[in-house]
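Re-running the complex after MR caught last week's input typo. The corrected sequence lines follow. Everything else is unchanged.
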Amino acid sequence: MGLSTAYSPAGSGLVPGPLGAGAGAARRRSAQVRRPRLATVRCSVDAAKQVQDGVATAVAAEAPASRKECFGVFCNIYDLKAEDKTKSWKKLVNIAVSGAAGMISNHLLFKLASGEVFGLDQPIALKLLGSERSFQALEGVAMELEDSLYPLLREVSIGIDPYEVFQDVDWALLIGAKPRGPGMERAALLDINGQIFADQGKALNAVASRNVKVLVVGNPCNTNALICLKNAPNIPAKNFHALTRLDENRAKCQLALKAGVFYDKVSNVTIWGNHSTTQVPDFLNAKIDGRPVKEVIQDTKWLEEFTMTVQKRGGALIQKWGRSSAASTAVSIVDAIKSLVTPTPEGDWFSTGVYTTGNPYGIAEDIVFSMPCRSKGDGDYELATDVSMDDFLWERIKKSEAELLAEKKCVAHLTGEGDAFCDLPEDTMLPGEK
Amino acid sequence: MGLSTAYSPAGSGLVPGPLGAGAGAARRRSAQVRRPRLATVRCSVDAAKQVQDGVATAVAAEAPASRKECFGVFCNIYDLKAEDKTKSWKKLVNIAVSGAAGMISNHLLFKLASGEVFGLDQPIALKLLGSERSFQALEGVAMELEDSLYPLLREVSIGIDPYEVFQDVDWALLIGAKPRGPGMERAALLDINGQIFADQGKALNAVASRNVKVLVVGNPCNTNALICLKNAPNIPAKNFHALTRLDENRAKCQLALKAGVFYDKVSNVTIWGNHSTTQVPDFLNAKIDGRPVKEVIQDTKWLEEFTMTVQKRGGALIQKWGRSSAASTAVSIVDAIKSLVTPTPEGDWFSTGVYTTGNPYGIAEDIVFSMPCRSKGDGDYELATDVSMDDFLWERIKKSEAELLAEKKCVAHLTGEGDAFCDLPEDTMLPGEK
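Corrected-run output:
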């Protein structure tokens, strides 16, 4: 397999190259209104410099003509099928990560490269999306990935234009978002970040794999995911996810702690709704060692306060650690992906924020709502139907639904549904969430 | 298997508990001169708080008497042998990490917990050593480890007293060291950090497993490792390592880049000597696709400047990324450990800074020098003997040796070898190294 990426010197404008020059891609892109940006998909920054210095000219000269824009360790040509060690490997998977110079990505990228997520027979291409401001840091990340010598990591490219970075990607992990400044209203944040996800949705629609799986981490992630999918009508809405897995993991840990068992005994935990303080960690359906939580934990007061306990975890961590929880967020992203690419253990399920269309629970249609799902491991999922509902659970679910419907009205200008009308009841961001 | 840790409220003084109360341990410790410290080996900080709040009393009441000081997810009792999923697992491995609240550890701990390092049948106990200043951050790290739900991570404890944290550890990964302040002489740094490693050597000698493997990362790591082993006479000197694996990885990447091959084609790279600017990346013995490097890369000027290229990598990264390379350092620590616990691929070797005693190369005895090693995967190693030497290589090795001999004289007061005499030729710290 030959792997290809395009290198364009910063400031040179858009240089046609393997990543941007396919006829189909060009056609798709011409239909897009685009802000001009630096064309900056590159690999192996140091190598590019060396070429300028005349050091690596031998390598450049040896490379075939079609690849002469590209240099560096991740741009080398080789044939995985020709080697015993790699010939049984799967086809390269292309993974885009936005906010790639941030702390969550700094954990996540190395996990993706190590094989921990997609398995030890799955070669990986990482496409890192950053901003002009973060571009140097992106180069640093790419250099550290080079120095890590991960055998499965076969391509790294970096850029600031989603139309280039998202080209043919199989996964888009959308982490980058603006943090809320002091005194900023939630509506303003929805607007600023919503614009980012509208743009990225358009870019995915134009250039990504037709079956790309999109995981939105940047907050407010449910509504960002909704904006993103509305701007990508050619990609199935079912392929978009908002990350609520960190909430699920924290809920499992607290249930284990309270029950005095190890956390691997806790199953069937659902986070319902919005990734905000209206989220609903579900202890009605959750099980501990196969038994209903309410049988094992009879402390009703604790159970009623459980939602608060889970929500406060992030804030408590920030207090301790002085910054938000990048490492465990990255772990939860890994868990969210693995849940889609490995079969769900029999009887269990996982939480993910997905597009509501024909859901069996009676939750409003046309929003992104976290619900219990199962997967065969093919990247797809089905909603779990064997769930119970009671008044306490349903009331809270409706509250989170109301919030998401209000958020949706607030971003109508970004989803193509008319003028925005913003009437958000209260500030429901999780403490410290970006 | 029941796992035990001791919880002592901060400020309560030394509370006898499973970690500190064994008769043997008490005997060993009584022989040590110790500075009084807070007794702060704990697990699951939040749980401890909950107990104070009366929330988790049910759990406490269920725990057997000998464990009542201990609470939280990592303190639960269970029997790995009783479950199908875990009964074939190996015996728990105890891993101490110093500087545990720092950025390198923040990457490393999650790798250790994931099974990436020791394998998917190896349960892990992490013993995190921090300082009074970093204690809250340590709690945050422990909380993030809890929230990550790693099935193999069966115990986490945190503390600031190495005599408690190092109790019975099988591995000690010594990352914590003071960074050099502005204008600080190297000799002053050697003294300040040397004192830390003298103390930690004494603690390991007193309480660690008799076959503990010690990897020193905190710089200047070679001489710190020498100080550490000299203060731990009851632990084989062969068990101490100084990390030069990041240098080796960077050297491999640069050779691959220059040769236009993927980095998995580069083998037999040795970093000789000190982890400083006198380090010697060896391109005489290195191979690319099984062929000597000098056959593949005929650019002599490039090869002569190769050492500089490798050394400058860290500084270049700091410039790009704004901080030192925590992620790839953590990866190289993983590589260093894996090289000792998995058999070395046939014909290849790896670099690690080890104690010189009876080495076949003619390098001075009684220092810690990075050399080519092979392992059967049992945690031990043998020096590679099938290495070539030429004048260019040997001259540079002698220069690094001279530096290490000078550093050794400079810390004589810490190794029990009389008065220190400091006459370091020049500043040879790697850029940005701590």
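None of the earlier attempt is carried over here. Chain B touches chain A through 67 residues (CB under 8 Å). Chain B has 15 helices and 14 strands.
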